[in-house]
Structures are given as structure tokens and as C-alpha cells.
Amino acid sequence: MSAIAREFEDASVLDLAALRRMSYAELDELYRNARRPGFVSDLDGHARGAMLAWRRPRSGPIAWWLRVFGASTAFPWEGKSFTGASDDGTGINRVTLFGKRKWFPFKTRFDKSFLDGKPTFVLDYSGPGNPPLIRSIVDEIREVAPGLYLGPAALNFRGRPRPVLFFAVSHR
């Protein structure tokens, strides 16, 4: 068991602040050891969001700036709102840019992870209502603590998801 897994064996100590302190590699390990939500409806409602760590750059001034900006109140992404009934659902991002907005709808489903092939909860932006770049986004999430979900955001490139960053959403 790695140091990060041992440190967070007790999921009650995990929150958005703890996730923000982790590196991309630590978040990747935590995600790979997490479980998918039990039901689509587990995520119903308005979850607070946090951008956590970019795949590249891993260090240096750009990485520092991205982490600081992502954690600041100036960062425009507030989180995601989910609605689900059975195995499928929908959602939308909540953004504060030129006022409060709901942008970039997505559909949700249970599927295999593009990272490790294990069960996960997929957020699919490929619907025709989104701009082309947004349609190429695929997010996944797994539950790392009660009400706290972690996942990679990826861009489809040549038919294959390429992870870009880790994010989290919280119902706590």
C-alpha cells in the first residue's frame, strides 16, 4: 500500500482542501482505488466543484498558477448539477462568468473507465448542444469519501480520451 493510500485509509479526513494538496500522481492513485457511485441518483443536486491538478505541467510557475487560480474565488467554475433516475442521467456545469450561467450540458451513465477499465460514472459532453471542443470532453468520477467524488477530465483525441486534469465535486 502506498503512502497516499495509507494516509487516506480513513475517508472521513478527505475533503476538497485535502484533495487540492495532492499531486496529479496521488490523485490518480486515489481515483484508481475508489469505487463508482452506487446509483445515478447518489449525485442528484448541486455539487460544489474544484479543479485540482493538471497532468502537465507538474511543477514550476505555470503549475503553481493553475493550482492557485483553480482554488481561488475568481475561478469561474462553481460545480456541476446532476439529475438522475435509473442508470442514466443528465447534468450541467454551473459557471460564474458574465453572471451566473449554466453551460455545457452532459449525459451520465455507468461504464468502464478510460484510465483503468474498472466501473466508473461517465459524464459525456458529446451532445449536439455543445461547441465542438466541449463535445470532445469526457469526465469520469468515483466516490473517494461519502459525498466526495474525484475524477479525471479528458479530451478525445483521435478517438481516444487523453487525461488533462483531475477535478472533484462535493455534496458535503
What is the end-to-end distance?
A: 28 Å
Gyration radius (Cα, Å) is: 15 Å
Structural domain tally: 1
Average pLDDT number? 87
Number of strand elements: 8
CATH class category label = Mainly Beta
Note the run of SSEs as H and E: HHHEHEEEEHEEE
Q: Name the overall outline.
A: globular
CATH second-level architecture: Beta Barrel
Name the beta content range.
35-45%
The total of helices stands at: 5
Structural category: alpha+beta
List segments where confidence is low: pLDDT < 50 over at least 5 consecutive residues. none
Q: Portion of residues in helices?
A: 10-25%
What characterizes the major β-sheet? 8 strands, antiparallel, barrel
Going across the major beta sheet, what is the strand order? 1-2-3-4-5-6-7-8
